Amino acid sequence: MTTAQLLNTQFGIAGQLKFREDASGLIVAEISNPQATASLCLQGAQLMAWHPRSQTVPVVWLSRDAKLTAGKSVRGGVPVCWPWFGAHISEPGFPAHGFARAAPWHVVESSTEPNGATRLTLRLTEDDKTRAQWPHDSRLELTVIVGDTLRMELTTENTGKSDFVITEALHTYFKISDIGAVRVTGLAGCDYWDKVGISTLKKQDGIIQPASETDRVYINTTAECVIDDDKLKRRIHVAKSGSLSTIVWTPWTVKADKMGDLGQPDGWREMLCIESANAIDNAVNVAAGAKHTLIVEYRTESL
């Protein structure tokens, strides 16, 4: 059985990376270097926090009601949606957004980058439960590089002899001042599936300024997105590669009340999801023996 003590011996980095056991029994990696702090739960390989030292408030949002629970994703951070995004195409009993975000992962590498950032790589641990839902020979790894920028690389390797198809997302929750004070640019002119109500294909006209529940899957786009936050006087850049879909999501009042774990009563107003993905029209065929990598990089600048 892997313990925090064993992980610290094998992968800990003095003054930068240490592992601890949460009260829930789950193990959390804590990163603190001259550029930023971050935390990541080994269950789901879920980054829960990223706070560059250049910023007065965190960039990645975690619900104030968030609690670590075995077998359940944490509300906020960056859940890993894999090997399907949304509902399973044929098995309604399978978990939404795949099993990776609640499955155990194990650490395979840690190091310090030449610029002082901290690199951590985890691999999904297969078991009978995951194989029952995904009967394909594969390897999934997530590399996180924590510094003044945050880089995440999600790599799917087909280790079998037959092709398979995945959909996926890095479901990032961003900390904002207030949902009524932000604008999202970079997606003007893009087609998107509006998932509120009956799914409808539409085209984005200009900037995005959410004023109600918003759940949009933008397709066929590699564009960099930008969140302008006038109250926090900052701009968050979301650059990506290996991704043709971008999801913009905010639940708004009614849905947030039903969800119940967004930090009542108004925690939802302080977050906005911009997800880098391959979903719906942009499913990825991974050929036998091949790899596919989805990469996102986040950085901030002052307004």
Radius of gyration: 18 Å
User: What share of residues are in beta strands?
Assistant: 35-45%
- Write down the overall mean pLDDT: 96
Describe the global form.
Answer: globular
Runs with pLDDT <50, length 5+?
Answer: none
Euclidean distance between termini CA atoms? 48 Å
Q: Write the H/E string, N to C.
A: HEEEEEEEHEEEEEEEEEEEEHEEE
Name of the top-level CATH class: Mainly Beta
Helix and strand composition category: mainly beta
User: How many strands?
Assistant: 22
SS field, number of helical segments: 3
Instruction: Provide the domain count.
Output: 1
Classify the fold: give the CATH topology: Beta-galactosidase, Chain A, domain 5
Largest beta-sheet details: 8 strands, antiparallel
The CATH architecture term is Distorted Sandwich
Helical coverage, percent range:
under 10%
